Amino acid sequence: MSFIVVMAELIPKEGAEDKLILLAEALVEETLKEEGNINYKCLRSITDGTFTFVEEWESVEALSEHLNSPHFKLFSKESADLAEDMEIKVLSAEELNLYE
């Protein structure tokens, strides 16, 4: 089975971490309710504070719906001034069953 994986790395501006955590919390909560979402996590690096969103989607269409959702648009708008940089990687993937 193939699916879509998104890895979005966000470098917060100094002092913006707490606000970004609140925004990410709301985004993750709403995104996990979306049809077509397999997994959605927000991780924070313990070494440099970078936020990484790790997402799995059933299809490009499901991801597209997410990108047009009110909660994603709100996060994008609110986080724009809180981040120094953001890098996004999107790939079509299939799971390797290496442990069977």
Automatic annotation (TrEMBL):
The keyword Oxidoreductase applies. Keywords: Monooxygenase, Oxidoreductase. PROSITE patterns: ABM. InterPro entries: ABM_dom, AI-2_Isomerase_LsrG, Dimeric_a/b-barrel. One of its GO terms (molecular function) is monooxygenase activity. It holds the Pfam family ABM. The keyword Amino-acid biosynthesis does not apply. Residues 4-91 form the ABM domain. PANTHER family: ABM DOMAIN-CONTAINING PROTEIN, QUINOL MONOOXYGENASE YGIN-RELATED. This is Antibiotic biosynthesis monooxygenase. It comes from Methanobrevibacter olleyae.
